[in-house]
Amino acid sequence: MRWKRARKSQNVEDRRGQGPGRPRRGGGAMKVGGGAGIILLLLSLFLGQDLTGLVGGGGGGTANLPQLAPPGGSTSIRDDDEAGQFIASILGTTEDVWGKLFQNAGQQYQVPKLVLFNDGVNSACGFTSSAAGPFYCPGDSQVYIDLGFFRELQRMGAAGDFAQAYVLAHEVGHHVQNQLGVSMAVQRKQRTVPKVQANRLSVLTELQADCYAGVWAHHAHKQFQLLEPGDLEEGMNAAAKIGDDALMRSAGRRAHPDAFTHGSSEQRQTWLYKGLESGDPLVCDTFGGAV
Ligand SMILES: [Zn+2]
Measured in angstroms, how far is the CA atom of residue 33 from the centroid of ligand 1? Predict the structure, then answer.
């Protein structure tokens, strides 16, 4: 990836080496692996009209979003910290890409903050160990990453900078879902259906975040010529390596679809590719009316 040409985001908070620290707010918020497509909400956004009143239950979904960070922000990534510079650059491209997509629809994208940490971290979602991997907390609208996860990714056979960027773009995809009200709608629906079906909705939410990661890559390349030969293959390979069936098999278990959390390798590749190819968030309706 030609990431060095990209603007670095100012919305990175570096908590590495600080220990878990204190929660920023009282816990209780659910951690989200995803958010998927209530078609009305998506249409609202991308048609620039508020159609969400047509959905019963109210509740919106854009509560809990932070104020836009002040220009100049608090990023303190050192110049010789290549991993930190990389992540700040990729985050910057997600801000530009989603900012423009929202703007085209007459909406304003509220940028998420990214927190770098080691070992474990406290968020509005409670305490989370690094072992859980990167995550998005809708309660404080922040993405949390221990960069050590990228070593783990490499160990799983998903090496390369684009594979890492895809992971971040997937988490930012959850933020987009939160902002669109998808996450909240999914949670509401999940409370009314049997467990197996609720789990399936979580998977669809995750697949939509993959699709949004593809949408990001499409536009990031268009705007910044970010991708180099081999990058797409890296992303598709990563999607396969972190598919639930691949993970279950590598742990010596049989692939069991009811226990999927993020979707199979094939599903993850399919949705990432749909977003990549089209650059259109509307193709990312993984739910197909299920929510
Ligand atoms: Zn996820």
Answer: 4
Radius of gyration, alpha carbons of the chain: 18
CA–CA separation, 86 vs 72, rounded Å? 18
Largest CA distance in the chain: 52
For helices 231-241 and 161-180, the axis angle rounded to 10 degrees is: 70
To 5 degrees, how large is the angle CA 74–CA 78–CA 79?
Answer: 125
- Tell me the percentage of the chain whose pLDDT exceeds 90: 59
174 pLDDT exceeds 90?
A: yes
pLDDT in tens, 223-275: 999 999 999 899 898 888 888 888 888 888 888 888 888 889 999 999 999 99
Distance between CA atoms of residues 96 and 103, nearest Å: 10
Cβ contact 172:98 at 8 Å: yes
CA of 173 to the centre of ligand 1 (A): 8
Separation of CA 238 and ligand 1 centre (Å): 14
Grouping H, G, I as helix, E, B as strand and the rest as coil, residue 259 is helix
Strands 135-137 and 142-145: antiparallel
In whole angstroms, what is the distance from residue 253 CA to residue 242 CA? 15
Give the DSSP letter of residue 53: G
Distance from the alpha carbon of residue 241 to the mean position of ligand 1, in angstroms: 15
What residues does 129 pair with on adjacent strands?
Answer: 120
**Contact predicate 147/17, CB 8 Å:** no
Segment 42-101, tens digit of pLDDT: 444 444 433 333 333 333 344 444 444 444 444 578 888 999 999 999 999 999 999 999
CA–chain centroid gap for 218, Å, is 15
For the record, the structure tokens of 234 come out as 């890296």
> Which H helix or E strand runs over 189?
helix 182-190
